[in-house]
């Protein structure tokens, strides 16, 4: 039986191809001078900041848009703070009042369910909440 060796690569040839391919791929290399621990801490810090910020449901975003309500950075920060305080007290669905704005927030998912100007609320009655935070 005659096998044509030109069809097959030796183990050494495969090894050389594999090693050359790894050394050429720059995406696999970590940035020079940055340790794994530093990269991990940076990613965790970014994840923590993102987890702390409230999100707006589609319904809440539509309400803000329909009612022409624009939040300042300071108001958004206070909304985040109020949501954290409500969650720390064990409130699941909270009314968070910021200036003349009212937000119903699910603290478990960190999501604003709906938003309104207090002057628009019928008789200032809020239902389906188990606590309120006035900021």
Description:
The structure is a single chain. The chain has 135 residues and is α/β, with parallel strands linked by helices. It folds into two domains: 11-48, no CATH class; 53-134, 2-Layer Sandwich (YaeB-like fold). The protein is 41% helix and 19% strand. It contains four helices and five strands, in the order ααβααββββ. The chain has helices at residues 11-24, 36-52, 58-66, 73-88; strands at 55-56, 93-98, 101-106, 111-117, 131-134. Strand 2 (93-98) and strand 3 form a beta hairpin. The termini are far apart. The mean pLDDT is 82.
Number of strands: 5
Q: Helix count?
A: 4
What CATH calls the topology of the largest domain is: YaeB-like fold
The CATH architecture of the largest domain comes to 2-Layer Sandwich
H/E element sequence: HHEHHEEEE
On the 0 to 100 scale, the average pLDDT is 82
| Cα gyration radius (Å) | 27 Å
Helical content stands at 40-55%
Spatial gap, N to C terminus: 87 Å
Tally of distinct domains: 2
| Shape, per Cα inertia axes | elongated
**Major beta-sheet overview:** 5 strands, mixed
Class from secondary-structure proportions: alpha/beta
> In percent, how much strand structure appears in the residues?
15-25%
Tell me the name of the CATH class of the largest domain. Answer: Alpha Beta
Strand numbers in spatial order across the main sheet: 1-4-3-2-5
Low-confidence stretches: none
């Amino acid at each position: 039986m005659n096998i044509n060796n030109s069809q097959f690569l030796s183990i050494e040839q495969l090894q050389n191809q594999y090693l050359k391919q790894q050394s050429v791929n720059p995406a696999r290399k970590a940035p020079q001078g940055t340790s794994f621990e530093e990269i991990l801490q940076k990613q965790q810090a970014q994840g923590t900041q993102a987890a702390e910020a409230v999100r707006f449901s589609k319904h809440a975003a539509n309400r803000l848009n329909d009612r022409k309500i624009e939040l300042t950075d300071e108001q958004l920060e206070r909304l985040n703070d109020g949501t954290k305080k409500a969650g720390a007290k064990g409130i699941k669905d909270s009314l968070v009042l910021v200036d003349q704005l009212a937000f119903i927030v699910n603290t478990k998912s960190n999501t604003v369910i709906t938003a309104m100007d207090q002057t628009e609320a019928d008789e200032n009655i809020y239902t389906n909440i188990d606590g309120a935070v006035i900021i």
